[in-house]
Amino acid sequence: MDCLKASDLPVENWLGFFNHQYPANVTEDLIQAYGYFIKSDKLQAFFVLLPIGERSVQLKHLYIKDKLAPVYVLAIIEICIQLVKKKHFDHLYVYSEQDTLNQLVQQLQFEISEESFTYQQSNGTWWSLAVNNNKVY
């Protein structure tokens, strides 16, 4: 599987992935600035790494075509982790309201975050993973 920056792909590819209609809260500008696609033989998944704070990003808008097996989702999240490390961020955050996703991020050693990046009441959980393990203090 390859991870491709959305801005390196033609817009027609984005539209094809989303069946010519972007999901709610996903705009062309958001895709251009922060979007990534996972490709094997075709585009299989999409996600956004949205900067929050100075050295952190949030994994948002994860969309998967076809294969929904938990091991496949784990592989995509692992690709996100590697990308975040490559970009030299310190933390990756995930917000989840789903038990299945909560279990998957726990398997990848995410920890429940004390920080919340939304100003509204919600039933979900913020998870955090320190990805910059080589930091010298």
General description of the model:
With 137 residues, the chain is α+β, with helices and mostly antiparallel strands. The protein is built from four helices and seven strands; from the N terminus they run βααβββαβαββ. It has helices spanning 11-17, 28-34, 70-86, 99-107, and strands at residues 2-5, 35-39, 43-52, 56-64, 91-96, 111-112, 125-130. A seven-stranded mixed beta sheet has the order 1-2-3-4-5-7-6. Strand 4 (56-64), helix 3 (70-86) and strand 5 (91-96) form a beta-alpha-beta unit. It is globular and about 40 Å long. It starts with a strand and ends in a 7-residue tail after the last strand. The mean pLDDT is 86.
List keywords for this structure.
alpha+beta; 137 residues; single chain
| Spatial extent as radius of gyration | 15 Å
Tell me the number of strands: 7
Strand content: 25-35%
From N to C, what is the helix and strand string? EHHEEEHEHEE
What structural category characterises the helix and strand content?
alpha+beta
Helix content: 25-40%
Mean pLDDT: 86
Give the neighbour order of strands across the main sheet. 1-2-3-4-5-7-6
- Which geometry do the CA atoms define? globular
Distance linking N and C termini:
35 Å
What does the main sheet amount to? Answer: 7 strands, mixed
Query: Count of helices?
Result: 4
Parts with pLDDT < 50 across at least 5 consecutive residues: none
Q: Quaternary arrangement of the chains shown?
A: single chain
